[in-house]
Design goal:
The complex is a heterodimer of chains A (313) and B (526). By secondary structure, chain A is mostly helical. Chain A is built from 13 helices and no strands. By secondary structure, chain B is of the alpha+beta class. The chains are: A mainly alpha (313), B alpha+beta (526).
Chain lengths: 313, 526
Amino acid sequence: MLDFIARRLVAIVPVLTVVAVLIFLMLRLTPGDPAAVIAGDNATSDQIADIRQKLGLNEPIWTQFGIWIADMLQGKFGESFFFKKTVAELIAQRIEPTLALATCTLIFAVSLSVPLGVLAAYRQGTLFDRFVMGFCVMGFSVPGFVIAYCLIYFFAIELGWLPVQGYVRIGVDFWKFLERMVLPSLTLSVGFIALISRITRASVLEVLNEDYIRTARAKGLSNRVVLMKHALRNAAVPILTVIGIGIAVLMGGAVVTESVFGLPGLGRLTVEAVLSRDFPTIQTVILMFSVVYVLINLLIDISYTIFDPRIRY
Amino acid sequence: MTMTRRTLAALAAGTILAASGPALAQGKVLKFVQNGNLTILDPIQTTAYVTRNHGYFIYDTLFSSDENNAVKPQMVDKYEVSADKLTWTFTLRDGLEWHDGKPVTSEDCIASLQRWGKRDAMGTKLMDFVKEFKAVNDKTFQMIMKEPYGLVLATLGKPSSNVPFMMPKDIAATDPFKQIDKYIGSGPFIYITAESKPGEKHVYNKNPKYKPRAEPASGLAGGKVVKVDRVEIIEMPDVQQQVNAMIAGEIDVIEQLPHDLIPVLKRDRNVALVDWNPLGHVFVIRFNHLQKPFDNPKVRMAALYSMRQEDYLKATIGDAAYYKVCGAAFICGTPNASEDTKGLLIKPDFEKSKALLKEAGYDGTPVVLMQSTTLPVLTNMAPVTKSLLEQGGFKVDMQAMDWQTLVNRRTRKDSPQAGGWNVFHTFSVSADALNPISNAYFVANGEKSSWFGWPNDPQMEKLRDDYAKESDPAKGKALAEAIQARALETAQFGWLGQWYGPGATRTNVTGWLKAPVPVMWNIEKK
């Protein structure tokens, strides 16, 4: 197992190298000039050229790449072109809302979708099953921002139960933090619930037709024990896989959700950085997302061994 | 077990609901949403309006424009100009202090003017005429001119970007092409760096030591009396959410509303719309004078003959209450305004356009029209241009892109086939367009210092110089009219109508001043 983990960790290096090269090249090849953004609308070409020079953007592209990689290897993530802050400081400031949103969404989505999927499989063909599957289709089909605006309209504007937007840090006021997490988490959960419920239903259905389930029932075990202990555990591997993939989807969804709900997280930082062509920030945030994604996949792979003892690395 | 779960769920839900309701006990905190994110905090490095607004919070100016656009002393107590108009002497008011407690001195002001004079269009023009600055004592300094200059006060009191904000000497010594990293001013608010989080909020506390002028506030001039304890700029990129948050009472002021959302707020009794910027904004079309076919004045003129301001205004603003067809390049209702365009830009003549194109030998190569799709107010401009130009005999290749791509591409002087461009739209606040010096679109210095499109017209530059030197308002107006006529004669660029974007406040917030900039002094929250 330790060998496997070590090999996977080493494999991160080429993955990140490829990601780094791709991000760097894509940003440099995409139209857009941070100097022009900094200078503002009334600046002349000469003034923009002066700023470009000061930012080091006139250096050959491979020189810029070399400087960036050398800095990264020394743990220097650079300074944002716009904010007078290092990218590390910016990320530290913005990571809490994103982590909070991801955690709340994950807890909410998993705790709802797995039982829904199991029950839908158990009651296959009933009205409940059709309702769950109908919800899944809706969850996949309706864009997150539409769900967000509907939730805001009912719960924040019409009923006035929850705030429209904003973020309060968990250490400042826990209840205000929580009330500001409800609508964004619900919004982000919908697609996630749809995805996990559907996969759970399919996996459990497949397992429910196995001989050992029939045997378990013949032994007189209750439905709850059959479903939770025998069916769900054996169906867990694809469910875990889809949760892992879902976390990546969740990162993408956070970009929209954070923008709509005014959450000052990494998703919004990415959007702002892309729109203003803040190269150091975009590069670092995307690399960070890549690391997180690779690590989550590693954790998922390791967790397979817990649910399925036949799997060995 | 079931009961316990239900009880827990009910308790959790009850607690969440009890904690909701009005978001925060706001007291004298004013929550303000600007028309964009505030990322750069140096109002000399960038012309971005959100940064200019930030500047007005924490910095003060030597002079300011009142609501009638008359320039009045602000930090300056008194000033005089010598009989030969070569020496201007400024004396600062008593009691001016930086936020760190140090007194404002002449040296600080001189350093600030010098830094600003390297970046701002009007500032650089003024500096062309300045021989030297002299600090007479801590409170008095002189500006010695090479020759008389008619726009000294208009330049020092210019209301919009880049505003000549005063900064401490050590900060003003920063390279004008690099961002400052300390935010100390002498203005009515103090920037609280420790509590400000870019992308989330910016915090400004009332400056308790600020000494406002005795005169009542008017426009950007007069006494800057702060009536709240704190202002928070809330970063909220989604305009629909700004409106939702306003309805829910979570924010107090929105700088500017998108026109399609105005009816939503009009229906809310707790929200008032405020037309705080009576001068509004002006749409512009720029031609690339370096590339075919718009290097030919006849082709540019053909384009102007195809244009009709009202078509643009209807397509972008829609509600006639928020736009105005105006032939004046220097903004209707202001001293330099002249509506005489001989029908150009107001009433199209497509036959004349086609005739001019034939005369110019236009070969039918499509002109590359850049369309910005990320600034809502500009999105519909390019399709209107495409339609009008095609009616006038042009072939048009409209290319959609985000605003930052356009901002980058417009700097390129290559041919459109090699990544350059032929024509694009932009807009500016009218306050930046009131005279031929502040209005960057009139600069015709070619590639040297003209704005994008790089027109080159020595006659225009001569007229602009004459205007700059003229101190008689009547003669100045005559020159402004000549400059406008010259711009039309050479089809240098087109001005495509004025529009207004009201802001919104909760009805318990009063005192918003009429000015080209949303300023937070004089505003009261009951």
